[in-house]
Each structure stands twice: as structure tokens, then as C-alpha cells.
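new request in #modeling-help
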Amino acid sequence: MRLILIGFGAVGRSFAEILRDKANDLREQRGFEASIVGVITATRGSLYCADGLEPSDLLAAAETGDFATYPDAANLQRDGSASDMIAPGAADALLELSPTNLETAQPALASCYRALDAGLHLVLANKGPVALHYADLAARAAAAGVMMRCEATVMAGTPTLQLAQEALAGCEILSARGILNGTTNYILTQMESGESYAAALEKAQALGYAEADPSGDVDGWDAAGKLLILANALFGSRLTMTDLQVSGISHIRADDIHRAREQKQRYKLIAQASPSGGMVQAMRLPMSDPLASIAGTTNAITLDTDLLGAITLVGAGAGGRETGAALLADLLAIHRCGRNQASDSA
Amino acid sequence: MRLILIGFGAVGRSFAEILRDKANDLREQRGFEASIVGVITATRGSLYCADGLEPSDLLAAAETGDFATYPDAANLQRDGSASDMIAPGAADALLELSPTNLETAQPALASCYRALDAGLHLVLANKGPVALHYADLAARAAAAGVMMRCEATVMAGTPTLQLAQEALAGCEILSARGILNGTTNYILTQMESGESYAAALEKAQALGYAEADPSGDVDGWDAAGKLLILANALFGSRLTMTDLQVSGISHIRADDIHRAREQKQRYKLIAQASPSGGMVQAMRLPMSDPLASIAGTTNAITLDTDLLGAITLVGAGAGGRETGAALLADLLAIHRCGRNQASDSA
């Protein structure tokens, strides 16, 4: 399987490392072989070689911050744009790993449509296109007979979408509720042990969990983006941000946490969706709720189903390697089922 | 997909109800159509009709306790044996739903081999054959170009094996540890709230969770059977019961529970396996362990992986409808991937 990557940050580099380290196992145990034929970045240049790029050389060039340092090779093309590179036959799949834009989804969205129209499978770690245009992308993929997958966009490598869409295929999913943002859960967990909101936020920033401007996390927008993807994937909704009620955790005080604990409850930033809509809101959960005991940056989701009742999945919600693993899982699913499944989801 | 069922107890009846109730949705949303062409039971007789049996009539006849009450129809054959009925072309899949025998796996094992050799896919809710002969069955299935699946045997419909084998396909699973027996977890949960072991067991028996002879549950053998299936499926082990250290919960006293609680710990019957072996044992877990908060008959498993760290799945561990749902999930996986995946797992 020949791959073009848009973006080569922590996730792209982790993915390249995983491909390099697991190449033998994947070939022997799964009959799966993949090579990166193209990499497109906004600031480090671009590379394309139909014969495949060398992962170790790619990683070394990325270290230098400039793909101009990638060694010359026969058929190597430098500095092509996404619109040059994404064309029928140029690769089997596009991996969209550029930074998330939850307002326009651009420039990634244009590349996604271009890839599907060119007959490439599409795998995303970038939340923007699937949060804002899931149904259109899925329809375009089905029409082209290819697959569109985005496991990496929700709970990183923890296989949330694969659980909901494949493992629970015989069930109707009635609703989903989860802790989808690790940064806010880390802050709330620190507050449980007595810290103030400000001190917990500062620690989250020092550890790299929260950004200098933390509003995307603490005001609920990151969780809302993931919730849109879930709602659109699980319920075939066409929800947009304006359909969601979104609030965050910045109003929660140490006193609130303390009072909740006295009643054997914990505050959690809960994202929940059903076929009729969704919301992101800090809520007090009884300790008997499986989500109440999720601590630190861990994420978790509970899916309510018709046949199985509640199914809860708990795992890492972030991390370059974890997200890279989700990309591999999506590619293996494409490899396993190929075009069968594209038509199945049509 | 034409199906032969061996066994038509609570699981078989629930499965027939699910097929009947979801027929339209499955056809429209998944392109999946299934009909039960044969049912074989030890005490109620057997039925086979190449044109398909009517689910409602089957369920009505099962209510009477005798398939002789199933209405006459063209091509209907009554009272055939498994060895008569399971033959090339007679069906597409065999569902083995007869009672578990963890000592010999018979008579189910012979039917399983017969089905695979006849080119039928094999789906099991009966733990015996896969607990004792997983590797042989998998090899026989691969040689025949068909699939062997047994989601229903571990945590009922909670998709444990699908999570481990498909959703986490890119990861190496380093170890598995879980609460795989709901009856013992119910008893321990009751003891947490102050009951004696004897009173909690009596309540479990009154509710139908534990049998009159509760030893299969309380001495750890049910959990051990599931652990063997997991170990053999996840690690390609060829472990047998004698390779496992197995103990149960009948030695645990109210005092033990009380002392553990003082140290913020809880007793759980933990089944754990790694490539080097496995054990079932009552253990004290710190409250920070996701398995510590699993209450009542709920089951849970934590898989430790190389790329994703710990992934925990929580859900129902028993129930006719839940187990029936697992059979449907396995059939949908066969339908999705057909022969692709059989060769993939070879």
C-alpha cells in the first residue's frame, strides 16, 4: 500500500517509526506492506518518490527541519504541492495529518476531496474535515469505491470508532457519552487532590497537555469536535457546531469539587450525543458511573446499545505514538476488507 | 447466509429473535441476510429445511419443548443427527450453542471439525471446543478457507476478541487481565456491602446467576475456560487447563473484605494471561485500578499493548440476548470480510 502523508509532525513521525519498526511483523503476520511515497508539509517542504521514500532518511530529514536534506535519489521529486501530488495512481491512500482547523477544515478538506476523487483511500488524524463534513466525505468515498476512516481523531489510538462501527455492528447504538479531552480530565483530577483550577492548569501547561492559550481544551471545543465526529459516524447525523451546547470547566472552583466529593460525586467534562443532538458540559457523576473513576489524561466512552446495554472503552486519549497506531489500525482494516467494506458502508 | 444451529436454549432462542427482529435493518443497512436452515438439539429433536425454517415457528415449537410441533412443510426433514446434517453445501455456517463441557469438549468438538471439513464457517458460544482445541480449530478453518469465530465465549456480547484481534491489529498485546466471571463478581460486590459469603452465594443462586452446584463459578473454572480461549486466541498459545494456576473465592471471608477496604483495596477474581502462561486468582486491587470499580455481574478486561498502553473494555458478561448479539457480530464479520480474512489469519 503506497501512502502520501500531509503533515509530518509528532503523529506523522511516530507513524513512520511504527511502519519501520513493525515492517517484518506486519508482512509476516498480516500480509501487509506499506511504503510512504509522498510527504507534504507546510513549512518543511515536500517529497515524492513513486519507488517509496526511506523511513529512516525521512525521519532524519524531519529532525533537521527541512526535507531539502533528504538524500537525492532516482525519481525523487521535491516541493510538489498537494494538488500536484494527489492524482489517480500516485498512491493508494492519503493520510491527512495536518493541524486541525475546526472553523473551515481547510486546507485539509480540499486535499481530502481531491484524494477521494482520485480513488485514494482516506485516513485522517486531522479532526477538521470529519468534524465539519463527515457525511459528504463518506458519501464521496462510497461513490469512489474507497474507504474513509478516522480512528485517530477520537481518543487517539483507543479504537472507539472501530468498536462502534465494526465490533458492535449488530447493535443499534442509542447514545454515546464520554470523557474525550484528556487535558481537562487531568485538570479536574488534580483539583480532586486539592489544587486550585489555576494551579492545575499551570501544571497541565508545564507538562505540555494544555497550550499557552488553553481555551480549545478548557472551553470544551476539542471535546465538541470529537463529539461531532462520533455523532456523525455513529448516528449518520449531519450535526454542526451550532447544533451542540458546549461549555467547559473554567468556572469550576475547588469548593465545587469539595461539595461534590461530600456527596460521593466527581466532576467530569462529559461529551454526549444521541441521534437527536449533543452537548459538552461539566457534570457531577456518582462514583458508581464507570466514567467517574477515569483519572488523569485517560479518555473513556460509554456506548448504550439495544442488545448489549452499556459498553465502556477506556484508554489513552492523546500521544504521537498512540495516534500513529490508530493510522496503522485504519490501514490494516482497509487491507483486511478492501473494497468489500467500502460498498458495505455505502 | 444459511445457518445450522446446534443447541436451541436461551442463547439460540435469543439469536433467532434478534435475526427475526432485525432482518430488515440488516438487509438494508448491511446487505446481510441470514436464514436458519437447521436446528439440532439433544432433547427436543432436530429440523432441517434447505429453504429455511421460519423463526417464529421455530420459537413457538421450542416453547412447547418439542420440535415435532413445528408445522409440516415441503422439504422439511425431522430428527436428523449432526453427522447427517453437517455436509458440504448444507449450510454456510455452523453455530455451536450446546452446553459447555470443559473436560472433553464433546460432543461439540466432533461437530466443529465436521463443519470445518465440510467448508462451513464456524461460530461458537460453546466454550469447550475453543478452550481445549483453539489452535487445531483455527488451523483447520484456515486450511478449509473458512472462518472460526467465538466472540460469544468470552464476556458474552462485549466484543473482547474483536477488540483484541481486529481493532488492535496493529498492536502487540503483551498481557490480558480481567474479571471474566460475573457470578463471582456479584458475590464479591455483595460482600463489599456487608453480606457474608454464604448469604451472597445464596442470593446469586436465587437470582439464577449461580447454579445449585456453584463450583464451576466460585472455584474459578468458568473464568479459567475463558482465559484459555483468550490466551490461545491472543497469543497463539497452546495452553491447557493444567498449565493454569486456578483458584476461586470460596475462601474469602467478610473480614478479608473489610481489611482490604481499610487499605482502599477491593478483592476481585482476576484472570490473567501473557504469552508465558496464565492464572485465575482472587486478588486485592487498589481503587485506582479500572477493574476495582467493576460491580455486580459486569465483566471487564484490560489489555496491555505495545503502542497504546492499557485498553480496558467493560460490559455485560452473560445473558441470552447479549450472547445472541455476539453470534450476530461474528456472522457480520464473516459477511464483511468473507474469505479475505480467513486467509489473513492463516
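bot summary: Chain A touches chain B through 49 residues (CB under 8 Å).
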